[in-house]
Design brief:
single chain, 336 residues, alpha/beta, Quinone Oxidoreductase, Chain A, domain 1, Rossmann fold, 2 domains, seven-stranded mixed β-sheet, six-stranded parallel β-sheet, 12 helices, globular
Length: 336
């Protein structure tokens, strides 16, 4: 038996004992080493996620150790290896999968959303989802998933070295986007309401921080020499999006990563007049291994970015804390 935290309904996260699962054909048993709490986890816990059926064991950002393989596995990594899990179980046959864009598979299942995730000591996943994370601190390796989302947004927006990029929101995805953009050599401005978040963005290499409470948008226009070429939206808030469209240069790209239940007004005439590309972006496809590789050499920056807490039993307190204190913490990672 093992300890697991099960979300049984809205605002109900309970400690329980469950059986350690057996890996089937093509599957691997993992021992969880560290698991992050994500904004999606907040939505599930609060009863606001549209695709979740309770009860569910959450947790899709995690680092683990290989304990045992099931039958018919390639066993490319030795037992005992440290890995991170790309949490996307795809069908491989739908239109999106046929294009290699399995992140938007029509039959997609996410570990920790549609099936049991890392809020437990042991779990089983398909072997195909494993990526080696040798020599990375476990709490740093768990950041591979949000970084992969940021890298996907950059790919969707065709971010390049000559771009001036405006990131809306300095939460975990926005801060990961700073890392992803700077890897590509672009100039980066980031906007947020919380000074402490902007300070972290500056440490990660942001060239301009924009206080959405008081700074004038003209500051960004002047910095970029007339307007930005790419906007990465990680908030999904109408005023920020409207400002972004106005600041985009003609032929610019607007990439929407932030999720909102609201219908957001967008200035269509401006989008048409400037011929702006409006692109949706979500989990990464074929970028997860690259995201893991990008963590090597910046371990200290990630350590500063995440709040690491010892022990799975800290989960309920940390879930409430991260929801109620967004100004104090960007990302909590639980070491199991």
């Amino acid at each position: 038996m093992q300890t697991a935290y099960v979300t049984k309904g809205a605002n109900t996260l309970e400690r329980t004992r469950v059986s350690i699962p057996e890996p089937g054909a093509g599957e691997v048993l993992l021992k969880v080493k560290a698991v992050g709490i994500c904004g999606s986890d907040h939505h599930i816990y609060l009863g606001r996620h549209p695709y979740v059926k309770y009860p569910i064991i959450q947790g899709h950002e995690f680092c683990a150790q290989i304990e045992r393989y099931g039958s018919d596995c390639a066993q490319l990594l030795p037992v005992g290896s440290q890995v991170v899990v790309e949490p996307l179980i795809r069908c491989g046959t739908c239109y999106a999968c046929s294009l290699g864009r399995y992140n938007c598979c029509e039959n997609l299942k996410l570990v920790g959303v549609h099936c049991a995730g890392g809020f437990q000591e042991y779990l089983v996943v398909p072997e195909i989802l494993l990526h080696s994370a040798r020599d990375l601190p476990a709490n740093v390796a768990a950041f591979a998933e949000p970084l992969s989302i940021a890298m996907q947004a950059c790919r969707r927006g065709r971010v390049a070295a000559d771009d001036f990029v405006l990131i809306l929101g300095a939460g975990p995805i926005g801060l990961a986007s700073v890392i992803a953009c700077k890897r590509l050599g672009s100039k980066v401005a980031i906007s947020d309401l919380v000074p402490s978040r902007l300070a972290k963005a500056s440490k990660l290499g942001a060239d301009l921080i924009f206080d959405a409470n008081g700074d004038s948008p003209e500051l960004i226009r002047e910095w970029s020499g007339g307007g930005v070429t790419v906007v990465l939206d990680a908030v999904g808030v109408a005023p920020a999006l409207q400002m972004a469209v106005e600041l985009l240069r003609a032929a610019g790209r607007l990439v929407m990563v932030g999720i909102s239940k609201q219908d957001l007004p967008i200035p269509i005439s401006t989008i048409v007049g400037k011929e702006i590309d409006v692109l949706g972006s979500r989990n990464s496809a074929q970028l997860f291994g690259e995201a893991v590789a990008a963590l090597y050499g910046i371990e200290d920056k990630i350590e500063d970015l995440v709040k690491t807490v010892e022990g799975l039993d800290a989960l309920p307190e940390m879930m409430d804390y991260t929801i109620n204190n967004p100004q104090d913490v960007e990302k909590v990672v639980i070491k199991v």
